[in-house]
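Complex 414.
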Amino acid sequence: MNKLIIKNASELVTCKGNFPKHGKEMSDIGMIKNGALVVENGIIIAVGSTDEILSEYNEKDYKVIDAKDKAVLPGFIDSHTHFIFGGYRADEFSWRLRGDTYMEIMQRGGGITNTVRATRQETLDSLVESGRKRLKKMMQFGVTTVEGKSGYGLDFDTEIKQLKAMKMLNESEPIDIVSTFLGPHSVLPEYKGKEEEFLDFLIKDVMPIVKKEHLAEFADIFCEKNVFSIEQSRRFLQAAKDMGFKLKIHADEIYQLGGAELAAELHATSADHLLQASDDGIKAMAQSGVISTLLAITAFSLKEEYARGRYMIDNNCAVALATDLNPGSCFSNSIPLLIAVSAIQMKLSIEEIITALTINAAVAVNRQDTIGSLEVGKKADIIILEYPSINFLPYHVGVNIVETVIKNGKVLTL
Ligand code: NIG
Ligand code: FE
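Predicted structure with fe (iii) ion bound:
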């Protein structure tokens, strides 16, 4: 039996309470000073002050971690990534540094199309191997659950291959993976002007197999000018919903199309990016309980304006933060960079950032009942920082201060 006590944590961040946390609630992270918790069989069975816990549980019966002068938090959840892909697009990044925009590169046949070509050439095994390496790097930053998307196949075989790679990794690796079917990620040259036909193919020929073989829980679409329109996105997402998928949407990233409003209308689980989300869209997300997932490193890497994170929280949105790791717009899985940019550029407090990376992110991947907070009955997915306070997370700018990662009650080798 795996039995663990973590004691003497100078700050034990529980993130307990109602979820998702909207607006002001995001500042309440349920911190216990000099906290402790008890884990049995991978599940948290008690949380409290060190005095309370040690008066009830005998340390001799447990493996003990002394977290003196360290902060303890729920494992981070990276709720939006595209970590299964072939090839790289470093040349595109260098063009962007010279002044080209992401959309210009896409319009002249680069961008996602390049990664689709490379991903089609990969075998299932090679996708699993590169995926495994990327997961390891994520875990080193304290990520214990990650969402991953297809969308670099855009044909039957490769979409399925990507999703199968994630399924295999979910089974073999300690990190949990939540899979999303993102068939409508781009319009290949052969489908230009025939977007409806492509969507029909995805809805009729791919989606039912993804469902039948339990290869994804979520469906997602790149709703963007010159990619998929609001009407096309509505049609695809409605079909996915009817088939039993939960919904995500790449919304209002470069142009304001009304993706946030569409997410609210369809009761999507999350709307992601949102750099250009309108005031009405922000209100609609807050009211309908759509998680507003902000991908601050993408905006940073694309030299775009940041999403209005401060305004969203002030207007009662439930905000999550994620890296968006992918080979194009954002080749980064850096949680420290995400924290730095969210704090300094989007003006979020460290408490809001922690909520956005834990319990609100758990809701964004529909795992709110098992992860995202340190509460009795939840999985023991826990990180221990090298420093005594969460204030070191933004303060030690861009530096990884996660010292120990515990997944299902077991200390991982990083
Ligand atoms: O979330 N915006 C669309 N999709 C990805 C980028 C994918 C790529 O450029 O390869 C994103 O940023
Ligand atoms: Fe994305």
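The pocket of N-(iminomethyl)-L-glutamic acid (ligand 1) is lined by residues 82, 111-112, 115, 222, 250, 253, 298, 324, 326-330 (CB under 6 Å).
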